[in-house]
Design goal:
Helix content: 10-25%
Number of helices: 4
Bound molecules: NADP nicotinamide-adenine-dinucleotide phosphate
Oligomer: single chain
Largest sheet: 8 strands, mixed
Strand content: 25-35%
Distance between the termini: 16 Å
Structural class: alpha/beta
CATH architecture: 3-Layer(aba) Sandwich
Length: 160
């Protein structure tokens, strides 16, 4: 596998990521960081996230995970992570940002080599969560503290 998978996600103190199809918070600066990171990049996206928020990733090149097909888009659709890896190899894609939602973060977790994790000062309700993971599996590359959120750029430790 040559392609590198990098997750980009914002989660609350209890790994909350979604509520009623949207984000549980409104943090324009964090959202801007997300948009700036994925612009012009390949992004791996779940069918639900793509249908809900496809317009947020205008300028990116979406690769959609679904067991079905898309009605309103010509974006390529894949039914497994291995099909995405094969496609990336064929197309010589070296980097794909995983942009969720919850099911797709869960599916891609073993494939990740980097994680751009925004931890939001949020302890409220959610209906979608980032999968459980251990900070010990990751080494810190860079971190930034912002108002109400912190950004952690982490790299998977080689032995995990
Ligand atoms: N905070 C954040 O950083 C962040 C980021 C992204 C999204 N979100 C939030 O997350 C929520 C959406 O997440 P979600 O978990 O409900 O949905 P999702 O992960 O966006 O999409 C789920 C869909 O992915 C497809 N899928 C799942 N497993 C698959 C597999 N093994 N093979 C092929 N396709 C597969 C299925 O599509 P089909 O049904 O078509 O088969 C499934 O219905 C929203 O609330 C959104 O706002 C938050």
């Amino acid at each position: 596998m040559r392609v590198k998978f990098i997750a980009i996600a914002a989660h609350g103190k209890g790994r909350q990521i979604g509520l009623n199809g949207g984000l549980p918070w409104n943090l324009p600066a964090e959202y801007q960081h997300y948009k700036d990171t994925v612009r012009d990049q390949y992004v791996l996206v779940g069918r639900k996230n793509f249908e809900l928020h496809g317009s947020d990733i205008e300028g990116s090149m979406p690769l959609v995970l679904s067991r079905g097909s898309l009605e309103k888009s010509t974006a390529p659709v894949f039914d497994s992570m291995s099909a995405v890896v094969d496609y990336a190899d064929t197309m010589a894609i070296d980097k794909i940002y995983v942009i969720g939602g919850g099911e797709i973060y869960n599916l891609s977790l073993p494939y990740l080599s980097e994680f751009l994790c925004s931890v939001v000062d949020y302890e409220g309700p959610a209906d979608t969560y980032f999968p459980e993971y251990s900070f010990y599996d990751w080494e810190m590359v860079h971190q930034e503290i912002h108002d109400h959120w912190s950004l952690y750029h982490m790299r998977k430790r080689p032995d995990f």
